[in-house]
C-alpha cells in the first residue's frame, strides 16, 4: 500500500484499485475544531479535482477534492456523529471516503510524504 | 423556576473583581441582570396552565364550530404577566450590542450609523400607511420616491437602469445572474460556468451555484487582486460571466477592472460586480465606466438603512444597457412627461417583453427606499463623495496606526479602501485571531470580521465606517495595540477572554457539533 499527497492537503492510500482519501493532519490543524463533514454518496462517479466532500470547522467550510477519478466505493459513516475524528486522527480513523480508481496513472502527479512535508514547510 | 432546560448547560459568567465576593444572593451582579429563558420564568403550576392574560372562561362550548381544530391540551405558555414579559425582553435587549451603543468594525459589512432623519421620513403616513394593492392613483408619491431613488442609483453608478425589488445583497446577485442568463438565452448562447475570484464575497459562488451554474475559482495575485492572466486564460464559450467584488474583500481596489471587463465582454460573457463595498467608491467611481453589466447595491450598507437584526435588507441591482431589457417585474420607469409608471405583467408583453419574470410578490422594501432616498438627499452628491473619502481615510488611519504591531499583508501595495486587513502572523505560539477578537469584547468593542477573507491566514478585517470620529478611532486603536502586545508576549489571560462580558468564552465547537436549539420542558406537549 502506498500513500500520496495533494497540494490541497488531501492524502490517498492506494491498495489495489481502491484509494482511501482523507485530509492531512496539517489541514485539520489549520481548520481548527471540525464540526461537520459532508460526505459524497456511495456509488457516485467522481472526476479528479472535483469537490466531493465538505469539511466544516469553527473557522470555515472547506471543499475536499478527490485526487483521483473513479467511483465512490464507501464513505466513513462514523464521521456523521463524530466529526472530531478528523481532528484526532486525520490520517487514519478520520478518513473520508474510498474511491475505486478509474486510472491509476493519475497518481503520477501526486506527492510522496517527503515532497509534501517540504511543500508544507514552504507555506 | 419550575421548568429547567434539561440540557443543564449554562455558559460561565464573567469573574468578579479581585477581592470581591464572586456571587450575590440574587445571582445578578450590579445592574447587569441575569436572564433565564422565558419558559424558565414560569411559576410552579403556571406553566401551560395560564395564558398570562385575564380572559374569562368562555360560557359557550367552542367544540362544535372548531371541531378537530380544538386544542386537546393548553398551549405551552409560561403564564407571565405583561410587566414580567416586558422586563424579560428588555433585559435581553440590554445584553445585546448595537450600532447605537458603539463601533461595529465588522469588515465587509459597512455597519454605519442609521440617521434618525431616515426614520422620520419613513414614518410619514404617505409612505408608512400604504398597501401594495392600493390603486396606483392613490400612491403616486411613493412611486415618485421609488423613481427618484432609481434615478440616483443609476446616476451614481453610471448604469442604464435599476431593478429595485431584490430584498438583499444575495437576492440581488441572483437577479443579476438571471438577467445574464436571459440575455444569453435570448442570443441563443446559453452558458454553464461562472468564474469567481478568491477575493470575492462568499455569497458569490453560492449564488452562481443556486442559479445552476458551475463555479470555478480564479486565483489571486500576491498583492491580493484578481489574477488577470489566469482569468483571461480561462475565458471561453462556456463562461457566462464573472462575479467580482470591487473593492474586494482584502479592502483593495481592483485596478485592472476595465481590462477584466473588456476581456470578459470579448469572450461573450458579462461582468457582475458585488457592490457590497460600494461605500468606498460612491460618488468617486461609476461602475458603469468600468464595464460592469450588473451590480447590487446594499441599501443597508452604503445608504445607511438598518442592518443586521435592525431591519430588512434591500439590494437593488443596477444594470447596463445590454442587460436592462431583461430586468424583473415590477419595473419602474419614468414617462416622457415625467410621471412614474410601474410595468407589471399586464403591460410587460408590450412594454418590457424580455423580462425574466418576477422575484418578489410586490414592490420590494418600500421602507428602505424612503430611508435610502432620505440619506441620499440629505447628503447630496458632494456629501456622498465625502462619505467615500472619509470611509477610506478612516480605514487607512486604522491600517497605518496598527501596521507596526500587527501583520498587514497588503499594506506595502499602497493605501487600502474602506477596510484594513491584518493577519495573525507574529502572534505568540498558541495565540490566535480569535483571542484578539474575544479580547476586544472585554475592551468594550464588537469584534471585527475574523477568518475572512480566506486568502489571508487568521484574517482580521476592520471596517470603521465614515461616521466614527478620530477620538473614537483612537480609542479602538489603543485597545487593538494593547491586545496585539498581549498576544505577542503570550499573556495567558487573553486566551480565556472575555472576562468582563455577561458570559465567558463560549464553546463554539460544542455549539456547532451538538447544538441545543430549542428549550425542551417537562410539560405536556401542546397539540
> Biggest interface pair, residues each?
A-B, 9 and 6 residues
Distance between the termini of chain A: 28 Å
Summed over residues and divided by their number, the pLDDT of chain B gives a mean of 89
Helix/strand class of chain A? alpha+beta
Q: Which shape of chain B, going by the Cα principal axes?
A: globular
Largest β sheet strand count, sense and barrel closure of chain A: 6 strands, antiparallel
Unreliable stretches of chain A (pLDDT < 50, length at least 5) are none
Helical stretch count of chain A? 4
Tell me the strand order in the biggest sheet of chain B.
1-7-6-5-4-2-3
CATH superfamily of the largest domain in chain B: Type I PLP-dependent aspartate aminotransferase-like (Major domain)
Task: Round the Cα radius of gyration of chain B to an integer and report it.
Answer: 27 Å
What does this 3D model show about the protein?
The complex is a heterodimer of chains A (123) and B (527). Chain A is α+β, with helices and mostly antiparallel strands. Helices cover 20% and strands 37% of the residues of chain A. Chain A has a single domain (2-121), classed as OB fold (Dihydrolipoamide Acetyltransferase, E2P), CATH 2.40.50.100. Chain A is built from 4 helices and 9 strands. In chain A, strand 2 and strand 3 (18-23) form a beta hairpin. The mean pLDDT of chain A is 94. Chain B has 3 domains: 1-95, no CATH class; 142-372, Aspartate Aminotransferase, domain 2 (3-Layer(aba) Sandwich), CATH 3.40.640; 386-513, Aspartate Aminotransferase, domain 1 (Alpha-Beta Complex). In chain B, the strands form 3 sheets. In chain B, strands 1-7-6-5-4-2-3 form a 7-stranded mixed sheet, sandwiched between helices. In chain B, helix 7 links the parallel strand 2 and strand 3 (214-218). Chains A and B meet through loops of A and helix 14 of B.
